[in-house]
Design brief:
The complex is a heterodimer of chains A (about 775) and B (about 290).
Chain A: H1 17-21, E1 37-43, E2 49-55, H2 57-61, E3 65-69, H3 71-74, E4 95-96, E5 102-108, H4 111-120, E6 122-127, H5 134-138, E7 153-161, H6 164-170, E8 173-180, E9 193-198, E10 204-208, H7 213-224, E11 231-234, H8 250-262, E12 266-269, H9 272-278, E13 284-293, E14 299-309, H10 317-326, E15 336-344, H11 360-377, H12 381-388, H13 407-417, H14 420-423, E16 431-441, E17 456-462, E18 469-473, H15 482-494, E19 501-505, H16 521-548, E20 555-558, E21 561-564, H17 572-581, H18 596-607, E22 610-616, E23 636-647, E24 654-664, H19 671-690, E25 720-726, H20 748-760, H21 771-784
Parallel strand pairs in A: 1-12, 10-11, 14-15, 18-19, 24-25
Antiparallel strand pairs in A: 1-5, 2-4, 2-6, 3-5, 7-15, 8-13, 9-10, 9-12, 13-14, 16-23, 17-18, 17-22, 20-21, 23-24
Helix pairs in contact in A: 7-8, 11-20, 15-16, 16-18, 19-20
Chain B: E1 7-9, H1 14-24, E2 28-31, H2 37-43, E3 50-53, E4 72-73, H3 78-84, H4 91-99, H5 103-108, H6 111-117, H7 123-130, E5 134-139, E6 142-147, H8 148-151, E7 152-154, E8 157-158, E9 165-170, E10 179-185, E11 196-204, E12 211-219, E13 226-227, H9 229-233, H10 242-255, H11 266-292
Parallel strand pairs in B: 1-3, 2-3
Antiparallel strand pairs in B: 4-9, 5-6, 5-9, 7-8, 10-11, 11-12, 12-13
Helix pairs in contact in B: 3-4, 4-7, 10-11
The chains are: A alpha+beta (about 775), B alpha+beta (about 290).
C-alpha cells in the first residue's frame, strides 16, 4: 500500500506568502543601516583594450567620496566558478575584455556622488581589435582574448561512447540537422544587489541577492584574503535567479572590500543595463547533430557537435559545454553517442548557467530531429518516442543511472491530455501540434570545487517549551519555494502540522548548503532536513518512552500528537507534570493523546535542548572517463509537453495557444509549487523560443539592455496550460522527491518548433521565432513544395 | 539611472502654465503622462531646471460634446481612448490606444505626449494622421492649429514652438462619417513598440459600395508616421472589396520608406505594410458601412 502522508503532497500555502503579498518581505535593496555608504563600479566602454593607466586621484578628492578601490588596492587574485578555470580578477589590470569589464569601484555618501566620482577616474586605454562572433573568434588570426588560451578556446570536450561510425553505417536512415539560439538574459525582476556591513570586531556580514551564499562566502573570502570566519553571507528574500545569480558578483567583492576600507556599511546594486553587462546567463549554442535509426525508428547513434559563445570569461562554461553533450544520454535508449563540444571566448559579457544548464538547445535540436525522422519514416512522433524510451534501472551509455523514470507516464499523460490522436495530422494549415520530451539532473553529483564536503547540512532545534520547531538551513529560497518544501519535510518527518515549523535559511551561519542551482535543494537539502527532523524526533520519543516505560519503537507522532503502535499509553502523569508548569494558562492540551508540545517539553526536562542535525552528500556517481562527473546526479527528473500553435501565414507570427505539460518530480512535496515551476519553465522556454535575444552593436555594446526592448513573455503571450504532475517514487530522494525547477523547461522549445513545423512545414534552424524568420521559412518551404 | 534634481510646478490653469514656460524658457519642460520625460531625465537624454506638470489644467482634458466636431484634450490618456474613442466614432484611435504599451503605461500616456514625442512608431500619432487630425497649440501670442502631418517634422521633432502647449487633437470634422481601424505588428502582444503599424480611415458613398474618401497612415516605416496618399487614391471612387484593398495595400507598401534595424529588415516591414493595410481596410470598411447606414 502506498505510504500515507499528512503534510507532503498537499497544497500548503507558502511560508513566505503573507510577507511577499503584503510587501513586508525584505530584499537586499530594502536594507538600510546607519551611516550606510553607496557604491558604484567603473566599467570599461571598450570591448577589448589595454589598460595603460588608472588615475583615481580626482575621484578621491571629491567631497563625499569615502573610498576608491582599484586593482592596486584589492590585488589580483584570480577567481571564477570552477577552480580549473579561475580566469577573472576583480578589476582589470592589463586588459579589459568586454564592454562592462570592471576597472574600479567607489563608495560615497550617496549614489549621485559615487557616480560623479566614477566620471572623475581617468583611464587610459589602448583599444585592441575585438571579436564578437564565436566562429570568427576560433578562426586563425582572430584577436587573442586571453594569452593563456590560444585560439580563443576556453574549453573543449571530446567524448565517444560505443562506436558511432559503425552504428551509423548500419543505420537505415541517417540525417543531419542544425540549430542555433541567441544569448539569453535571466529576466529576473530583482537586479543583483549586495550590502556589506562591518562590525566592530573585524567581521563583515554580506547581504547578497544570490542563489549561492556558500560559494559567495568562499569566493569573496578567497579574493579579499579574509578568514572564512570573518565573513558571513546572508541571502535576504531574492526576486528570482534562474542561474545568473549562482556565482559571486563584482558587487559582492566590491561592497565587502569597500566596507572593510571605510568601516561603514556599503550598498551596491546593478541597474538593469548592468544586469545585461554582467550576464552569466544562457550561452549562444550552435549545434549540429547526425542521428541514425533503423527503418522502424529505433535510435542507433548520435554524432553531435556544439560551439558555444562564452563571452570574455569562463564562469560556469566548462560545466555548460559538458552538459550540452551529456544530457542527451537520456531519456532514450541509445548505445552510441559521440560529442565534440567547444566553448569560444569572445569580447562580450561572460555567459554562465541558466535554467536547464547547457542542455536546453541541445535538447531542442535532438527532439526536433526526432520529429523530422518520424515524419520521414511515417511513424507517429509520440509513438517513436515511446518505443525508444528508457525504463527504471536503465543506465545511459554515459553512465547516468535511471533510478526512477516516469517518462513513459509523462508522454502518455500529455498525449491523452491534449487529445493528440484526434489532432495530429488533422489540423488545418496554420494550426499545428507538436510534442517533445526532456530530462534533467536532480542536483549536481559533485560540488563546483573539488571537495568531499557535505552538499547540505540542516540543524533542527525544538523550542525548549516544546511549542515549535526551528529549521536552520543555509539553503537559498529565491522564490522557488524551498523554505516551504523544507518546512513540509520537517513537519512530515516529525509528525506535526506545518504551522509548528519555522524555517530560517540563507545564512552561512546555519551550515553548509551549496545553494539553489542544478535543481538540487528539494533532494539534497530535503534529505538533510528529514534526517535532522528524525534525529530530533527520536530524541523526544526516547525520553517519552522512558517516562512511559514503553519501547521507543512503539511510539510516533502523527498530526502533532503522540501515537502508540503497541500498548495503550497512560499519559496522565506526564500531562500532570506539564500542567503544573503552566498553572494559570488557558488552552492547555487536553486531548486523549499527549501533544507534541507536552512530549517535547518532557524531553527537554530530561535532556536539555533538543537538536537534530542532518547532512547529505551523494554517493560516488558516474563513470571514470574525463568529464564523467558532469551530468551525474542522484536522480533525474523528466517531462513531456504537447504544444498547439496558430501561425499567421501572412505575417509569420506564432501564437502558442495551449501547452499540455507532464513532469515526473518523484513525489510532489507541494503540488502547487510543482505546478508553479512547470508554468514558470514554460514561460521561460516560450520566451526563448519566440522572443528573447540579447543583441550587440558593432562595438560590442548591448543594444537592448532593458525589459522594454529585451522581450520576455507577458501574461498575454502565455498559453492555456494544463500541468499534470506525474509521481514516481525516487529511491534516492527524500520521501521519493526529485527535481522540477529546470527539467520542466526542456520540452518547451522543441515542442513549439515541432508544432510550427506541423502548422506550416517550415524548417527553422535559428531562434528566436521572430515573425520575419518564420515567414521566410514558410516561403522557403512553399518554394520546395 | 537617478532622477536628477529639478524644480516642480503644478499650475492650475493654462495662463499660469504658459507663464511658467515663458519665464523659464528652454530650461522648462511640460509634463503630461511622464512616460518618456521621466525616463529621458533619468537617462540624461533630457536636462531641465523646471518641470511644469500640466495635470491641473482642466481644459486639457476637455472632450467635444455629442454632435460637435471631435476634439480631444491633450491630457486624455491612451486608456481613456481605448474605452471612449469608439463611442465617439473613432474606432481606429480606440484600437491604437488599446495596444499602446501596457495597462500601466496606458493609464499614464497621453495624446499630447504621444504627439510631442513624435516617434516614428507612435501609435496615437499614426492613428490621428489617418483621421486627418489637427493639433491646437497655445502660446504667449495666442492659439494656432496645424495638421498632424505638418506638426510632426522628423523623428522626435515637431513644429511646437518654445513655450507652447499642445491643447488638443482634432480629428477632421467628417471623421465620424467614416470608419477607421488600426493594426500593429510586434513580437509580443503587449509592451511593444510597433515593428510596423497601419491606420486607415474610409468613407462609403450612399450606395454602400463605393469608396468616397480614404486615408492610409503608416507607422515605423519612415522618419515620421507617413501618409500613403497613393493608397487612398487607389481606393477612392472604386468599389470597396478585395481588389481595391489589395491595390491600396500594394500602394501603401510602395509608399513606405522602411529601414533595416535590429528589430527587423526593411523588406519584411514593407511586406507587412501591405498585410496590415489590407486587414485594417477590411475592418474599417465594415465600420464605414455602419457609419453610413
Amino acid at each position: 500500500m502506498a505510504q500515507q502522508f499528512d503534510v507532503i503532497g498537499s497544497r500548503a500555502p507558502r511560508l513566505d506568502g503573507p510577507a511577499k503579498a503584503t510587501g513586508q518581505a525584505i530584499f537586499a535593496d530594502d536594507l538600510h543601516f546607519p551611516g550606510m555608504l553607496h557604491g558604484a563600479i567603473l566599467q570599461s566602454p571598450h570591448p577589448h583594450a589595454r589598460v595603460l593607466s588608472v588615475d583615481a586621484s580626482a575621484a578621491r578628492r571629491l567631497p563625499g567620496v569615502k573610498a576608491v578601490i582599484t586593482a592596486a588596492e584589492v590585488g589580483t587574485i584570480k577567481y571564477g566558478v570552477s577552480p580549473a578555470r579561475y580566469d577573472e580578477t576583480l578589476f582589470a589590470t592589463e586588459k579589459v575584455r568586454y564592454v562592462g569589464d570592471e576597472i574600479a569601484a567607489v563608495a560615497a555618501v550617496d549614489l549621485a556622488t559615487a557616480l560623479e566620482a566614477l566620471s572623475l577616474i581617468k583611464v587610459e586605454y589602448d583599444p585592441l581589435p575585438a571579436v564578437f562572433d564565436p566562429l570568427e573568434a576560433l578562426a586563425e588570426g582572430a584577436p587573442l582574448i586571453h594569452d593563456e588560451f590560444p585560439g580563443n578556446v576556453c574549453a573543449e570536450v571530446h567524448q565517444e561512447f560505443g562506436d558511432v561510425e559503425a552504428a551509423l553505417a548500419k543505420a537505415d536512415y541517417v540525417r543531419t540537422d542544425s540549430l542555433k539560439n541567441k544569448r539569453q538574459d535571466g529576466g529576473f525582476i530583482e537586479t543583483h544587489c549586495a550590502v556589506a556591513a562591518p562590525d566592530l570586531n573585524g567581521r563583515v556580514t554580506l547581504y547578497s541577492a544570490t542563489q549561492v551564499p556558500h560559494y559567495v562566502q568562499r569566493n569573496v573570502a578567497m579574493v579579499l584574503g579574509l578568514d572564512l570566519s570573518k565573513l558571513r553571507v546572508i541571502k535576504p528574500y531574492v526576486g528570482g535567479g534562474f542561474g545568473p545569480k549562482a556565482e559571486a558578483t563584482p558587487l559582492d567583492y566590491c561592497s565587502t572590500a569597500l566596507a572593510l576600507a571605510t568601516g561603514k556599511p556599503v550598498k551596491m546594486a546593478y541597474t538593469r543595463e548592468q544586469v545585461f553587462l554582467h550576464s552569466r546567463a544562457r550561452h549562444q549554442f550552435i549545434h549540429e547533430m547526425t542521428t541514425g535509426v533503423t527503418r522502424d525508428g529505433k535510435l542507433l547513434a548520435l554524432k553531435h557537435r556544439a560551439i558555444l559563445d562564452g563571452g570574455a570569461y569562463t564562469s560556469f562554461g566548462i560545466a555548460t559545454v559538458y552538459y550540452s553533450g551529456s544530457l542527451l544520454g537520456g531519456p532514450y535508449r541509445m548505445a552510441n553517442m559521440k560529442y565534440d563540444g567547444l566553448r569560444a571566448f569572445t569580447n562580450k559579457p561572460a555567459c554562465g548557467a541558466q535554467r536547464g544548464h547547457g542542455g536546453v538547445i541541445a535538447r531542442a535540436l535532438f527532439e526536433r530531429q526526432l520529429d523530422l525522422i518520424a515524419k520521414e519514416l511515417g511513424i507517429d512522433p509520440v509513438r517513436m518516442r515511446l518505443e525508444n524510451m528508457m525504463e527504471v534501472g536503465d543506465v545511459t551509455c554515459n553512465d547516468l543511472n535511471m533510478s526512477s523514470l516516469g517518462m513513459r507516464e509523462c508522454i502518455e499523460a500529455v498525449r491523452d491530455g491534449s487529445d493528440w490522436g484526434a489532432k495530429k495530422g488533422k489540423l488545418p494549415r496554420g494550426k499545428g501540434i507538436g510534442a517533445a520530451c526532456g530530462f534533467f539532473v536532480s542536483g549536481a553529483g559533485y560540488p563546483i570545487y573539488r571537495s568531499e564536503t557535505y552538499h547540505s547540512t540542516v540543524t533542527l532545534k525544538v523550542d525548549e517549551d516544546g511549542g515549535g520547531i526551528k529549521v536552520l538551513s543555509a539553503s537559498a529560497e529565491i522564490g522557488q519555494g524551498s523554505d516551504t518544501v523544507l518546512g513540509m519535510i520537517a513537519a512530515e518527518s516529525l509528525g506535526v502540522p506545518l504551522d509548528l515549523v519555522r524555517v530560517e535559511s540563507g545564512s552561512t551561519d546555519f551550515g553548509v548548503d551549496l545553494g539553489a542551482y542544478s535543481s538540487r535543494q528539494t533532494l539534497m537539502s530535503g534529505h538533510a532536513c528529514r534526517d535532522a527532523a528524525l534525529m530530533a524526533k527520536n530524541r523526544i520519543l526516547g525520553s517519552v518512552a522512558a517516562e512511559l516505560g514503553v519501547d521507543p519503537a512503539d511510539l510516533d507522532f502523527k498530526n502533532g500528537v503522540l501515537i502508540s503502535l503497541g500498548p495503550v499509553l497512560d499519559i496522565a502523569p506526564l500531562r500532570t507534570r506539564y500542567r503544573k508548569e503552566h498553572r494559570g494558562w488557558p488552552n492547555l492540551p487536553d486531548g486523549e493523546a499527549l501533544s507534541f508540545a507536552e512530549a517535547a517539553r518532557m524531553a527537554f526536562l530530561a535532556q536539555g535542548s533538543i537538536v537534530g542535525t542532518g547532512q547529505y552528500k551523494p554517493p560516488q556517481l558516474g563513470g571514470k572517463y574525463k568529464g564523467a562527473a558532469v551530468g551525474t546526479s542522484p536522480a533525474y527528473g523528466c517531462s513531456a509537453q504537447v504544444v498547439e500553435v496558430a501561425v499567421d501565414l501572412d505575417t509569420g507570427q506564432v501564437r502558442v495557444e495551449s501547452i499540455t505539460d507532464a513532469h515526473d518530480c518523484g513525489r510532489a512535496i507541494n503540488r502547487t509549487a510543482v505546478e508553479g515551476q512547470m508554468e514558470g519553465s514554460i514561460s521561460m522556454g516560450l520566451g526563448e523560443a519566440l522572443f528573447e535575444e540579447v543583441k550587440f552593436d558593432a562595438k560590442g555594446r548591448v543594444v537592448n539592455p532593458s525589459l522594454g526592448e529585451y522581450h520576455i513573455p507577458t501574461i498575454q503571450d502565455m498559453p492555456a496550460m494544463k500541468c499534470i504532475v506525474v509521481e514516481s517514487d525516487e529511491p534516492n530522494g527524500p520521501f521519493g522527491a526529485k527535481e522540477v525547477g529546470e527539467g520542466a523547461i526542456m520540452p518547451t522549445i522543441p515542442a513549439i518548433l515541432n508544432a510550427v513545423f506541423d502548422a506550416t512545414g517550415a524548417v527553422i534552424t535559428e531562434l528566436p521565432l521572430t515573425p520575419e524568420r518564420v515567414l521566410r521559412a514558410i516561403r522557403e518551404a512553399q518554394g520546395k513544395e | 539611472m537617478l532622477l536628477p534634481r529639478f524644480d516642480y510646478q503644478r499650475p492650475r490653469d493654462l495662463s499660469e502654465a504658459l507663464g511658467l514656460l515663458a519665464q523659464a524658457g528652454d530650461q522648462a519642460r511640460p509634463l503630461a503622462g511622464g512616460t518618456d520625460l521621466l525616463v529621458n531625465l533619468k537617462l540624461g537624454k533630457v536636462t531641465c531646471r523646471l518641470v511644469v506638470d500640466l495635470d491641473g489644467v482642466a481644459e486639457l482634458k476637455d472632450v467635444s460634446g455629442p454632435g460637435e466636431a471631435p476634439s480631444l484634450g491633450a491630457l486624455l490618456s491612451a486608456a481613456w481612448l481605448a474605452k471612449q474613442a469608439g463611442g465617439l466614432g473613432l474606432m481606429g484611435l480606440a484600437e491604437a490606444g488599446g495596444v499602446l504599451g501596457s495597462p500601466q503605461v496606458r493609464n499614464r500616456a497621453t495624446i499630447g505626449g504621444n504627439l510631442c514625442t513624435a516617434r516614428p512608431a507612435g501609435d496615437l500619432c499614426t492613428a490621428l494622421l489617418a483621421l486627418d487630425a489637427r493639433v491646437v497649440l497655445a502660446g504667449a501670442s495666442g492659439r494656432r492649429e496645424l495638421p498632424v502631418e505638418q506638426f510632426i517634422t522628423g523623428p522626435g521633432l515637431t513644429a511646437i514652438a518654445p513655450g507652447e502647449i499642445l491643447l488638443a487633437a482634432r480629428p477632421a470634422p467628417g471623421a465620424t462619417a467614416g470608419g477607421s481601424a488600426f493594426e500593429k505588428l510586434g513580437l509580443r502582444r503587449t509592451m511593444e513598440i510597433a515593428l510596423v503599424s497601419a491606420a486607415v480611415w474610409v468613407q462609403s458613398e450612399a450606395d454602400g459600395r463605393t469608396v468616397k474618401a480614404a486615408r492610409v497612415a503608416l507607422g515605423a516605416v519612415g522618419p515620421t508616421p507617413l501618409l500613403a496618399r497613393a493608397a487612398a487614391t487607389a481606393l477612392v471612387g472604386r468599389p470597396a472589396g478585395t481588389e481595391a484593398f489589395a491595390a491600396a495595400a500594394q500602394a501603401a507598401a510602395e509608399a513606405a520608406r522602411p529601414i533595416d534595424d535590429h528589430r527587423g529588415s526593411a523588406e519584411y516591414r514593407r511586406q507587412m505594410v501591405a498585410v496590415l493595410t489590407r486587414r485594417a481596410l477590411e475592418r474599417a470598411w465594415s465600420r464605414a458601412l455602419e457609419a453610413t447606414a
